[in-house]
Amino acid sequence: MDNKKDEILTHFQQIINSDDTSYCLGLLNQHDWDISSAVQTAIASQEFGVDDSPIETQPNPSSRNRSSNVHVFREPSTSSLHFSGSSVSDNKARASPKKWPASGSKEHDRLLKIDIDYRGKMLNFNVEDSKTIGKLKELISQKLNIPKCKLVLKNWPKQLDRIRDEATFKSLQLPASIKLNLTTPGIFNDPLNTLQNSMSENETFKRLESHFELIVRCQNKVHTLKFPGSKTVHDIKLSLYHVTNIPVRYQRWEGWPADVTDSITLAGSSIQLPSHNLILSSSRPPGSYATNSTIASKSRNVVELNSSDEEPMDEDDDVAEIYDANDDLEFDETPASGRAFGALLPAVATDPVAATEQFAQEFRNRFGSDGPLFYNGSLGDALKEALLCRARDRKLLAVYLHHEKSISVNVFCSEILCSSAVVPTLSSSFVTWGWDCTIEANKNKFIQDASQLFGSIAANKLKDFTPDQYPLLVIISRQRSTNDVVYIINGSSILDEVISKLLGAQELFRQTQEEDIREEDQRMARVSMLDQQNQAYEASLRADQAKAEQKRKEKEENERREEEESRKQKELERRLKEEKLKREKIRQNVAEQLPAEPDEHCKQELSRIRIRAPDNKILNRRFLASNPLQILFNYLTSEGFHVADFKVLTTFPRRDLKIEDPTKSLKDLKLCPQETLILEAKSDF
């Protein structure tokens, strides 16, 4: 080897961080010692899971001249474990350098016996320990016809409760025989009672290890693509999005079996090996397509990795070869005019109601009306709507944070946030609130609100996210009067991860909600009892107060009556006293004017009058027979018997002298020589 090639080899090994000389020589020889092409192939192999076995050092000339219409989608392999609800660690794991295997190294695979208890029935699997947890879930998914994202495996040994689907059994260092429990949140019927899958376990393994050739006709072009059997239908649709620039939600397919769903794998579907014909069309509105030049410009550098100078690869067909499901981050839905979309919020969002209205409208304009329904109002109002209410009415709060500078934003919104599997979950169990952090002022406002509502720790964590980690879907729950950040889902997450975390958050929230409902019911019962006691006490108090008020009124009435009677009595006494004084004065005047009583031996004719008073007092007096009747009346008045108050009656015949003319003489009235008169008070009649 000459010095120049030696320098190229050393430089190449440093770039890809590999000590495997034979592997590096194979890559360089394959690309005629073009270090740029070799590095691109090595990076694509590392990121998209291409087989790491050494490449033949001698290039095969025939491989340069063969047709480039057949593409192999290889499945990524990883053994990382996931112990945290935050997706930030996922990014760090993906960014860590890969250790290139030594050439020719092999290790014997153990066969694990796995027994799974599902609703009292046992499912038995024999799996090589080089397989991943996801492989096992795919087998279970095919056996039970349940989406992979609905499967939750529990009872792992060594407290390995949170294991990523990409982890291999070998990395977990499990015993040769283990027993697990399977739960399917949200699945209420028993799939084992309606199971109609006739494929044997060995046949399922064989189909999973096989590659399916899909011949897809789209827009007058034919794309021949190869996928491993572990790929789901959704993965196929997402990959075709990169080839045809037709987003998944606008794809219309013909040729899939009737029972195929997005979550089913190719191995579990009823399509035949080795090839299957499909037709793809678009239902996307006119004018919203990206131009072919946009696709070509984004894929040209990668397409040229496997193309020779003499035979360039067809851009439309071969772009799928080097793009895996995670590569959707490289594509956005830029309009044909080439103008990029702007932020979803104004430069300074001061009014939260107007800002969230604009956010929701801009989101619908860009990604369609099938997305989630965003809450209109401030973050605090959304939190009150979701969690600061009765325990029975609570929902989780999903905060979607948009960032226009993220390469993941368009695919995450269109293929995940607007997915038919995500939108119903958000609508039924979440209050979804959206905000755009593209502009620094708006981001700072959100961080300030989050610090007040969720605490400084959660706010600082959200503040540290960089634009390429956006968009974020932050799941907020509430436990023991505290708002907790349950999950932070970033834009690089795949659909299964998002659904799994949403379902997991729902399950945790449901348990907390049930406990809160019990506590709230107990508290409401205590409050109700206390209210009843307070009502009874208040009723008793009101009755006592009413009685006291009645007594007070009666007392006041008695005092008023007594006072009135006393006043009347005094008035009466005053009048009586005045009347008495008046009568006495009249009596004195009359007595002074009354002529003296004639002597008994007077020679003039006399009239002797005997008067019986009401008090049985007898008055006797002599009058001249010629005296007028008025003199008799004056005499009675002088004795204290005012004639106005009495009747002056004769004995026989009985007559009242007051009706007689007082000027008549006693003789004329036949009251002489003597007469007996009776005084009767007028009140006696």
From TrEMBL:
GO cellular component, one term: endoplasmic reticulum
Residue span, UBX domain: 602-679
Region named Disordered: 49-104, 541-572
One GO term (biological process): ERAD pathway
Residue ranges, compositional bias (Basic and acidic residues): 544-572
GO MF terms held by the record: ubiquitin binding
UniProt xrefs under SMART domains: UAS, UBX
CDD domains attached to this UniProt entry: UBX_UBXN3A (cd01771)
Composition bias, Low complexity: 59-69
Pfam families to which the protein is assigned, alphabetical: FAF1, UBX
Protein name: DgyrCDS1018
Listed InterPro entries: FAF1-like_UBX, FAF1_2-like_UAS, Thioredoxin-like_sf, UAS, Ubiquitin-like_domsf, UBX_dom, UBX_domain-protein
Polar residues bias: start-end ranges: 76-90
